[in-house]
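Justification of computing resources. Each target in the renewal requires a structure prediction run like the one illustrated here; the chain below, 153 residues long, is used simply to show the kind of job we budget for.
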Amino acid sequence: MLKVSEVLKVKGNTLFTATPETLVTQALQTMSTHDIGSLVIMQSGQLVGMLTFREIIRYLSEHHATIGDVVSGAIMERNPVSVSPDTLATEVQRLMLAHHSRYVPVMEGEMLLGVISFYDMAQAIAAAQKFENSMLKAYIRDWPADKEPAKNS
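Resulting structure tokens:
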């Protein structure tokens, strides 16, 4: 079964974080520059929230499209759901759907290892299915000559 640790290996280990005091305008600049949809909000080495485009858009909608000097901590999602490197992909999918989370931090104890996005999960699952499909095709192709596949009568 596919685990989060395997998804992180393929994705890479670049992390982008901010603090609750980071201005949302700075967070937007970081997200735009690096083409990422979220920042993990850390304070004193602890995960305290997630800032995604969803929270930013919600804030803009409620405040007539102005950010001003708002800090990330004011609009971040507090206590986001997180997973460990040993979490199975099926559990990550379930958590993402149940919590409407497109981005999930990967934690080992209190250490941040990365962020898994909905896109990362879709890509990893598609790659795993492609591999499984090719293995099944190879198995069928190499079917022993003296054994016929079962026929339906």
